[in-house]
Amino acid sequence: MSWSTHEVERSTVVREIAASLKGERGALMPILHRVVAEVGYLTHEDTTVIAEVLNLSEAEVHGVATFYKDFRREPAAERVVQICRGEACQAVGAEALVAHATSTLGVEVDTRSADGTVELEQIFCFGNCALGPAVSVDGRLHGRVGPDRLDVLVGARTGGARPAGAQR
Amino acid sequence: MSRAQRGRVQRVYVPADSAARSVGADEVADELVAAAAAAGREIQLVRNGSRGMLWLEPLVEVETAAGRIAYGPVQAGDVAALVAAGMLDGAPTQGCHGRTDDIDWLASQHRVTFRRVGVTDPLDIADYRAHGGFAGLERALTMTPAAVVDAVTESGLRGRGGAGFPAGIKWKTVHDAGSDLKFVCANADEGDSGTFADRMLMEGDPFTLIEGMTIAAYAVGATEGYIYLRSEYPDAVRIMRQAIDVAYAHGCLGAGVLGSGLGFDLFVRVGAGAYICGEETSMLESLEGRRGLVRSKPPIPALAGLFGRPTVVNNVLTLGTVPMILAEGPASYQDLGVERSRGTQVFQLAGNVRRGGIVETGFGITLGELVEGYGGGSASGRPVRAVQVGGPLGAYLPVDRFDLPMDYEAFAAADAMVGHGGLVVFDETVDMARQARFAMEFCAVESCGKCTPCRIGSVRGVETIDKIIGGVDRERNLLVLDDLCTTMTKGSLCAMGGLTPMPVQSALQHFPEDFDRPPADTAGLPVPDKFAAETAARNAALMAGEVQR
Ligand SMILES: Cc1cc2nc3c(=O)[nH]c(=O)nc-3n(C[C@H](O)[C@H](O)[C@H](O)COP(=O)(O)O)c2cc1C
Ligand code: SF4
Ligand code: FES
């Protein structure tokens, strides 16, 4: 197999992460979390490396990596919008908010926009159920988010908030 | 500025709880610092937990000679004006509620588990001690482990994670099990929508959980503990990890806890977005680094749990209550509550409710007292129509059941459950057929896939309810739905599939009119079937005679 320099570097980083956590009990979950946190997402090659370090079968590591939705398989979009669809948020309009988001952002739930800039995800509860609808934008949690506020929050993270003339 | 004010450091509290932060507490804290500096006042800003009056967040408290004075909700833009109006001296400005301790909503509660939440600085271990922290552990260390187990049994404490199993009995099983390695695991997965008490305890008073787990370790003979904390709670993960570091630095964890012979190591493990990992055996699988597939019982985790070793698995609130039980004696806890539901429950008011937040009080309070009394009815001002109690697997109850006392057995008798104590309020605009549909949809999304009634039944459930909503052959499809519910209840391996029928059937029982409306369009609503490919492959293999059923 011939890997590009980038891939070789990546596999070195992943190997180091796996080796450094190998001694923990049930090390696989912490390793997968750390890899996603540090290199952004998980590739098939990553799971191969991790399996090697932990002395597990590739199928085992792959099975775990795909069972949990946090272990993303592609880089995050520029903007990650997560809307809670738990019952408490539904009681204050979460479904209408999701509909608003899909139409204004032009993406279906749990997909990303065609240009790859926005990702819309449904979440079942952020533990902010008395102050719903709860929405997280790029990892920052917001409460009482109606459609207008969602537009502001999402807009605030797009070009609109950047200084005029700034390059993307 | 008077002479007395000059040079006095004013202590001001602004919660760092993630709910408070979600409505601007960080911005308020920044503005307070700036406004105080501009006014030439020296303040000491404490980022406490939340008092649980979430409708008043961000809630600012100012310490005065008369006690802490509460202001809220404070908006970021209001801070300068409030400071100018004398907030830093406890002046009765707009939005001032007087002494926090006198606010009836709070004063009328009976806080045991949540005693320190919002009161102390979450990561200040001296503050923790000053408010009674470690008294329970110190007391436990003077007793035999068996006596500690007995105390927990006598208190009547039952598991707060949902099933209400007596904690002392579980601990005794682990205590009696012979093994050189045992574990204590805190279930901090808190996946139930409408619940947030575990999160608020971990963010607002993390040492209480550490102390409770340490007492459990001493009682059952465990040396290692794990907190399985969901990834949707990044603030709680950070605070819990910091608190563990502080506890080690002060000799409260590690070898020789508080100078005793007890050695106990504690770790935080982060979940990865799977609701089913709140089910204890699925959680253990996940902790071991595997897919979160539910294990069949027996063996029970108390005998063969984490890595096959005897393991205590308890909810955060269960473990977080133990220090108070030890400190004050089991009788004082046992005195609270009713019937076989002893002590207090940390109720969580959520959804369409005017005053949402934490109400900790003895069992026996009625559903109506919580929703109408503490909650003040709906936030929208429309009449309340339904309350879902106990998370996504709990029943929907109508207003005419508001007389039900919060009590495990009384709820079970009403085909409902107390669960983790979450109450989600809906006003009259709710469509209960849609809620029933959602219960099935949620099960289809979150099923671990191990057994057929849950994996396939939930997808069929969504489709069947869609037909009912769409007016297709209603009578027959209601029968099909009833059949499906029976199969799921009786044939599922765990309560995910086993209890999903509860919200569905309660909706049918109490709100039948919602299933008998003019046909509506369900096109575009999600019908998740994440195991479709696997099911198809399996069916093909079955047809080809390659696998046994
Ligand atoms: C689908 C499912 C999800 C669950 N989620 C949680 C949870 O998030 N937190 C929790 O403490 N218990 C949860 N439980 C209950 C646990 O299996 C277990 O009973 C509990 O952790 C035991 O602790 P306790 O006795 O202190 O309540 C769940 C159970 C099921 C079936
Ligand atoms: S009932 Fe559902 S979640 Fe539980 S074991 Fe079966 S498939 Fe898994
Ligand atoms: S249900 Fe939305 S935050 Fe809990």
UniProtKB/TrEMBL annotation, chain A:
Record note on cofactor: Binds 1 [2Fe-2S] cluster.
Gene Ontology MF terms: 2 iron, 2 sulfur cluster binding; metal ion binding; oxidoreductase activity
Binding site for [2Fe-2S] cluster: 84, 89, 125, 129
Family named by the database record: Belongs to the complex I 24 kDa subunit family.
Name recorded for this polypeptide: Formate dehydrogenase gamma subunit
Cofactor(s) annotated in UniProt: [2Fe-2S] cluster
Keywords of this entry: 2Fe-2S, Iron, Iron-sulfur, Metal-binding
UniProt source species: Pseudonocardia ammonioxydans
InterPro entries linked to this entry: NADP_DH_HndA-like, NuoE-like, NuoE_N, Thioredoxin-like_sf
PANTHER family referenced in this protein's UniProt entry, alphabetically: BIFURCATING [FEFE] HYDROGENASE GAMMA SUBUNIT, NADH-QUINONE OXIDOREDUCTASE, E SUBUNIT
Taxonomy, superkingdom: Bacteria
Automatic annotation (TrEMBL), chain B:
NADH-ubiquinone oxidoreductase 51kDa subunit iron-sulphur binding domain: residues covered: 433-478
Keyword Transcription regulation on entry: no
InterPro entries in UniProt: NADH-UbQ_OxRdtase_51kDa_CS, Nuo51_FMN-bd, Nuo51_FMN-bd_sf, Nuop51_4Fe4S-bd, Nuop51_4Fe4S-bd_sf
The entry's keywords: 4Fe-4S, Iron, Iron-sulfur, Metal-binding
Keyword Transcription regulation part of the UniProt annotation: no
Record SUPFAM superfamilies: Nqo1 FMN-binding domain-like, Nqo1 middle domain-like, Nqo1C-terminal domain-like
A Gene Ontology molecular function term of the record: metal ion binding
Family: Belongs to the complex I 51 kDa subunit family.
UniProt-recorded name of the protein: Formate dehydrogenase beta subunit
